[in-house]
Amino acid sequence: MKSNKAIGDRIKAVREKLGKTQIDFGLAFNPPVNKSSVSRWEKGETLPSAKRLKYIADLGSVSVDYLINGSSLSLMATKVLLDKAVGGEKLTGDEQKKLAESQLDLRATASRLAKNSSEEIRQSIEQQRELIDKKPLSILSGYSLSDFLIFFNLVRLYGSDNQNSEMAALLNMFRQIANGTIEYDKDDIIPNIDKFLSSFPVGKDTKSSK
Fold first, then answer.
1. Are the C-beta atoms of residues 170 and 196 closer than 8 Å to each other?
2. What distance in Å separates the CA atoms of residue 190 and residue 179, rounded to the nearest whole number?
3. Closest alpha carbon to 4 in 67, 65, 57, 58
4. Residue 67's closest CA among 50, 85, 83?
5. How far is Cα 65 from Cα 84, in angstroms, rounded to an integer?
6. Cα separation of 117 and 168, whole Å?
7. What pLDDT was estimated at residue 200?
8. Contacts 24+ apart (CB under 8 A), 169-175
9. Which sign, positive or negative, has the C-alpha torsion 59, 60, 62, 64?
10. What does the DSSP assignment read for 116-160?
11. Cα 78 to Cα 72: distance, rounded to the nearest angstrom
12. Are 112 and 9 in contact (CB under 8 A)?
C-alpha cells in the first residue's frame, strides 16, 4: 500500500482531469465536502471515507485499488493499449480503466516532479542569497550579476525555445567546468557558444527594455 501522500496525488489527478477546482470538486459529493477537506486529502493529511473514495474512483473512471496502490500497467503495456485505441480497436472495459489509470499516474507524477523541481530551485536560489549575505558583492561583482540577470531575463522572456534550451545547456556546462565535475573541452564548448550567440538578437523590441 502506498503512502497517504501518493493517494492524495492521485485524488488531485482525478480532480484536475475533471477540470474542477477544489471547491467544485467538493460540491460533487453528497453531502458536499468543503475546500479545506479536499486540500487535506490531496496533501495526504487525511483520507476520504471508503464511500467517498469509491465515488472519487467512479468520477475518474478508475478503481479504488488504483487510488490506493497506483497503476499496475507498465509503460510498454500502456503503449500497447494506446496503439490499439489509436488503431481503431475497441478496448474492453477493463482495458479502458487500466489505460485511464496509467494516464492519471503520468499526470500525478508530472505534477509531483514539477512541484519538487520548483522547491529545489527555490532552495538553490536561497542558498546563493545566503552566500551573498556572508560575502557581500563588490561593485564589480554587483554589476556582473546585474548584467547576467538582464541577459538571462532577455533570453527567458523574449528568446525562442531553442535559445532558452541552449542557454540552459551552456550554463549547466559552465557550472560543471567551474566546480570540476567535467573538464573544459574547447572543441565541444566553443561551437555551442558560437551557435548560441549567432542566434541573437532575441525576438523583441530592444528599445522597450531601455
1. yes
2. 19
3. 67
4. 50
5. 24
6. 15
7. 93
8. 170/196
9. negative
10. HHHHHHHHHHHHHHHHHHHSPPPHHHHHHHHHHHHHHHHHHHHS-
11. 10
12. yes
Grid coordinates representing 27 are: 460540491
Written as nine digits, the cell of 43 is 496533501
Query: What cell does 176 get?
Result: 560543471
Percentage of residues of the chain with pLDDT beyond 90? 37
What residues have CB less than 8 Å from 7, skipping those under 6 apart? 44, 47, 67, 68
User: C-alpha cell of 128?
Assistant: 546563493
Q: What is the pLDDT of residues 119-174, one digit of tens each?
A: 777 788 888 888 888 888 888 888 888 899 899 999 999 999 889 888 988 998 89
Residue 55 and residue 31: Cα distance in Å, rounded? 12
Please give the Cα distance from 92 to 183 (Å, whole number).
Answer: 55
Cell of 150: 538582464
